[in-house]
Amino acid sequence: MELRLYDTLTREKxxxxxIDPARVRMYVCGPTVYDFAHIGNARPxxxxxxxxxxxxxxxxxxxxxxxxxxxDVDDKINARAAERNIPIRELTDGTxxxxxxxxxxxxxxxxxxxxxxxxxxxxxxxxIERLVKSGNAYVAEDNVLFNVPSMxxxxxxxxxPLDEMIAGARVEVxxxxxxxxxxxxxxxxKPGEPGWPSPxxxxxxxxxxxxxxxxxxxxxxxxxxxxxxxxxxxxxxxxHENEIAQSRCAFHTGLMANYxxxxxxxxxxxxxxxxxxxxxFTIHELLADWPGEVLRLNMLxxxxxxxxxxxxxxxxxxxxxxxxxxxxxxxxxxSCDERVMKGTFKGRFIDVLLDDLNTPxxxxxxxxxxxxxxRFRNDKNHDDLPxxxxxxxxxxxxxxxxxxATDAHKLGFVDAGRVKKLINxxxxxxxxxxxAESDRIRDxxxxxxxxxxxxxxxxxxxxxxxxxxxxx
Length: 472
Known about the structure:
A hairpin with a 7-residue loop joins strand 8 (196-197) and strand 9. The chain contains 16 helices and 16 strands. The protein is of the alpha/beta class. Helix 15 packs antiparallel against helix 16 (435-447).
């Protein structure tokens, strides 16, 4: 089955065909580093991490380039640094370290490249000069602005009517604009703000507008046209719309990216997340109460294009599932080697994941794989456990897939080795008809939270005993 992705630009699900299979390229808008990222910010990070993993599975790790930028020049950054009375670089470096630690705890792989906006000023200025020269941008009161009417099909990505775009909440109103939709590419720096020598013949120091940053970084690391551009649905307009305008007009291309992907909004317990409602949570805060795998699973239980309702009950359900999966890996009698399945993993799980990252359906298939993996977890003649482990890894649950008996104590599990020893002793007592001893061992296991299940081995028909932790 081929990979199919929903493209926001064409509004249809299309077969993914990379420009160059030897270098699949993806750009995703990253954090503005002025404060801890909230749980809504975690959604695109997790979603596109799954896509990154899937692309690497399909095309090979060395053939996929994933760029996620760091916005480290912004009005919010300036204001927060001034509020804390610290240098801007100190704020952005510290905030980025926190972000990196948080998303690593969510099981996310580091992108191939994480460019910082402030390290790409020259590329931004080059694009601005090109746009001014082509007549797509102009200078007004030491600002450089993109002239939206110069691009006839502006607005195609968002599909917004003209009056709605003009009234957009993030479109700045200024008297020096030729058209209300025109947006800033470069603006003069105020005293105390970061500044660089300005382009387009402007004297004095200035700094880039938000949109030009991503166009420049994508161009630098992925080229004039690349495969996939992703982000949250809130970025469709004006950010991604403006990126398209800048990049297409600067390079005279029909497309900036061949596929545009956007994840849906996140709300908390049925309401929009806000500090005033007391339901605003950062990733950092949630990680203090929940393992990263639980937060990740809770995110993937809803299809990425649909709105997600973040609830306490959902977190509890996700926690139970993660513990079940980890317990199965800990209780297995042999390790899972990824090489067993590498390049050959086929089946319903991978098929639904290839269908526009249908993670809810993939999780349904994962549950089935888990049931088989648990049943045959000690049988090396079956590949169910390796299949389950690789499926976990593809969804970003590598720490669960790699769990073994050495993790039991650290993770709060019972000692799997001791449980197995007691079960063997109980079975020996039962075989010798020492039922009092058998019952004593069963009761000892019960105090450890272990529930026994006596059944027949599906392979031999012989009696066998399986176990699990109560409530898992």
